[in-house]
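The instructor's notes for this session suggest beginning with a concrete chain rather than abstract definitions. Hand out the sequence below and ask the class to guess, before any prediction is shown, which regions might be ordered.
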Amino acid sequence: MSNRRILVVDNETAIQEVAQISLETVAGWEVTTAGSGLEGLVVAERDRPDAILLDVMMPDMDGLDTFSRLQANPATRSIPVILLTAKVQTTDRQNYQELGIRSTIAKPFSPLELAQQIATTLGWKL
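After discussion, reveal the predicted structure:
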């Protein structure tokens, strides 16, 4: 198991907890969480995680605005971002990829499959 560091940004505490427990248990990754896009920006710049799981629909600053700000910051621009979203349509996926988002994972996600989905997307070994 590798010591990858993942940041989960989601305004729903339950989603943060399930993702954190899943990724720590299944993959042995270190997981930090943020409850808003603004908090996610601060944590991403401070911790420089290996990847970010980012919720699309959040109050105040949604996932796409957060992603845009991550891309605008030289310190966080190269961190791969995977969106967590309840709405995943083919056209959305294409638009997200054109923006530079690595992939999307549909909510609700399977806690047992989450680490593998991330690893596959990013070319990591579990």
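Then share the key points. The mean pLDDT is 94. The beta strands are 5-9, 30-34, 51-55, 81-85, 103-106.
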